[in-house]
Amino acid sequence: MRIAAQERAKSRLARHSEQMILFAVANRMFAIAAAAVQEIRSTDSLAGSANEIEHSEISKVRHMLERSHQTYYVVNAGAHFGLPVTRPTLVLILRQLRVAVLVDRIERMAEIVAIHSLPRAFVGDERCWYRGLTYVDDHVIPVIQPAGFLTADEFRRLDLVTNATSVPRGLAGAFQA
Amino acid sequence: MIAEIQNAGANTYVLLQLANRRFALTSGIVSELAPPVRLHTFPHTSPLVSGVIVRRGHIVPVYDVASILLGRSSSVHRFYLIARRDFPDGPESSAIPVSGECELTTAEMQEVSDDSRPYISGRLLIDGESIEVLNFDALVAKDVPPDKGPRRTEAQS
Lengths: 177, 157
What we know:
The complex is a heterodimer. Helix content of chain A is about 15%, strand content about 45%. By secondary structure, chain A is of the alpha+beta class. The longest helix of chain A has 11 residues, at about 150-160. The relative contact order of chain A is 0.21. Chain B is mainly beta. In chain B, strand 10 and strand 11 (about 130-135) form a beta hairpin. The longest helix of chain B is centred in the N-terminal third of the chain and has 6 residues, at about 1-5. The interface of A and B includes residues 2 and 129 of A.
């Protein structure tokens, strides 16, 4: 009881309504802000515009997409999170980042009113992966940090391999994930 | 048990059961014994953390301390002991899966000079049994390696 009172005072809960896309990878559910997603496409529909990256040092990125004169790196979300291999059917093309994310399926949209801070017990990569945790239909679901899919160093290494250095106007800062 | 813990004084300990062994925590950091609620898990790379539970509207991380104390993860537990972990910027409620009922006891802790494990504060002698007193912060500290090394925990929910 004493601990709970102390934690309430710290206000570690962000409360504002936000539209989320709930998606699944290897039967795990995640949430990402709808505002962070520019477009959702089936993997089949992008087959013609995706190019394989040869000699990619980053195993979770095997392909890139050319869209609107920009190169988007396609991150396999399962590989990113260390989940079992699946057959993704959808691509989330992110807004303001040169990242597209392979996922298995979209579950639904949901309006999230509270995002809890990731407990400080978590000290690993997840601190970059997630904005926090939310509670939907009796499930605790991690809320994705879009900039966490690729670090600035990973962007740099991929750009070196692919010679993709173009930067959209006004978005250079977004690449310093 | 909450009221008993809050009224407990110095030299008061909570005895917890992990598999067939008992350990002790100073009662000052224990807030309650929670029922076996659902463990929520998701991908992460933090050693020792097996997931989170929701308790009184808070998301509480669950530490698999059995992997250090017993050398293996405890797959059978009935309750969660809610204890306080102190961070430099404040405390955080934490959950420890325990196998059975916990017990509040008063005893004199004996210092241990022959134990190199930083997470053992001392021992209690109760009815002929020597029970190790845990330093919870040291036990779950990042630099305390689990017996089988760090592992990647994946979601199960």
